[in-house]
Amino acid sequence: MKRFLLVALFTGAAFAQGTIEIRRSGKVVATDHDRSTDAVRVLFIGNSLTFWNEMPWMTRRVSGSLGSKLVTEFSGAGGATLRQHWERGAALRAIKQRRWDFVVLQAQTSEMSTRPEETTNYARLFDREIDRAGAKTVIFATWRIGNTDLTARYVALAHDLDAALAPIGSAWETLQRNGLDLLDPGGIHPNLRGSYLSACVFYATFFGKSPEGATHSFETKFDIPESYRHDLEYDRIDAATAESIQRTAWKAVQAFNR
Fold first, then answer.
1. Are 200 and 249 in contact (CB under 8 A)?
2. Whole-angstrom Cα distance, residue 123 to residue 117?
3. Residues pairing with 73 in the sheet
4. CA proximity to 8, closest of 106, 94, 123, 109
5. Which residues 6+ apart lie within 8 Å of 31 measured at CB?
6. What are the tens digits of pLDDT across the range 146-194?
């Protein structure tokens, strides 16, 4: 199932508890105000594996609960590849329009499985522009779908670019071996726990700190219901599960970014 999110702009303060600002075709759906100038600023470039359950905003909430200010913005669309991001131009404009500390690149799973050379080529093009903008590239290592060992390919890509790695797939596999379900019923996208794992890994990657003790409560409602954030609105993470996710996220980041 493809859900197209044209532009999702997250500009709320790291400590704000309000809703999110989401734009579609220029229309603001909800807002969460922030004008922080001392926050770490992150641009996420990707598709639904990134925006499911409003994960960039969730990362902000995790960061804010631990005393770290974070501002995030998303550029992308459901099912988009790095090649499509490059050719459409919106992601490149987003890189150039603001000051970023990190820019996260999330490739489509199928392109990394079947066309890793193409993915690497377009990641290099983006990395060059990210470097020119004074930011650091972060590779979003997604979870395995099918039998392809994606983590090894993402590690190789991060090494090729001298980029940071957000090892979500590795942490994901550890938690799955321990019996934790991280996928929604569709079998591709994360449920709330899966998105929370991504948020914890990104916090640890951006700040070099453990996410242990972070908030795991995301009580929020939206004026316009969307299936991609159903779990964010209606599911809950218990404290023991949150602690397990936090510890696993930190161990994975430590292992891959020494």
1. yes
2. 10
3. 9, 43
4. 94
5. 12, 18, 19, 20, 21
6. 767 889 999 999 999 999 999 999 999 999 999 999 999 999 999 999 9
Coil, helix or strand for 139? Answer: strand
First to last CA, the chain: 37
| Best CA proximity match to 193, nearest among 204, 179, 182, 180 | 182
* Sign of the torsion angle spanned by Cα atoms 221, 41, 56, 175: negative
Predicted TM-score (pTM) of this structure: 0.87
84 phi/psi in degrees, rounded to 5: -65, -40
- List 165's β-bridge partners, or say none: 139
Tokens of residue 2, six digits: 């493809």
Contact 163, 137 (CB under 8 A): yes
CA dihedral 186→174→123→87, nearest 10 degrees, is 10
What are the φ and ψ backbone dihedral angles of 68, each rounded to 5 degrees? -115, 125
Rounded to whole angstroms, how far apart are CA atoms 175 and 105? 23
Query: CA–CA separation, 156 vs 178, rounded Å?
Result: 27
On whether the CB atoms of residues 54 and 229 are closer than 8 A, the answer is yes
**What's the Cα-to-Cα distance from 184 to each of 81, 113, 125, 143, 178, rounded to whole Å?**
22, 21, 33, 13, 17
Q: Which H or E run includes 57?
A: helix 55-65
> Amino acid identity of 128?
R
